[in-house]
């Protein structure tokens, strides 16, 4: 069918350009797989942290007082995951997954920030209490000692 006669000898040669293309494609696939693994690892950590966010959200909505340190620590942990996501060099469909996880981190942090504010309002006597009494300072400068005077 191809025009090769019976008992003909064929010499097969490998094209160096196709070998190079195959090698480049394998490296690209390896980079994409590494990116997917890193994003999946961050995603699993985000699942755990999102559960903690929802637990804090339930506590605050039920009127319970959550220590501010706990909220701040959780925000820091979420920001660490955001930094890990930023370090991932994604290509192809991994970019969409990376962006999805980044938005997820952002939503959790925003939720915690609003909870931190509402939790602060729920605590009577905690935080800064605004007053209308101002401290009064003497407008005259304090007397200088003899050794402070420069000529």
Automatic annotation (TrEMBL):
Keywords: Chaperone. Residues 39-114 form the BAG domain. Gene3D superfamilies: BAG domain (1.20.58.120). Transmembrane segments: none annotated. It holds the Pfam family BAG. It comes from the Eukaryota. PANTHER family: BCL2-ASSOCIATED ATHANOGENE, OS04G0619900 PROTEIN. This is BAG domain-containing protein. It comes from Hibiscus sabdariffa (roselle). The lineage of its organism: Eukaryota, Viridiplantae, Streptophyta, Embryophyta, Tracheophyta.
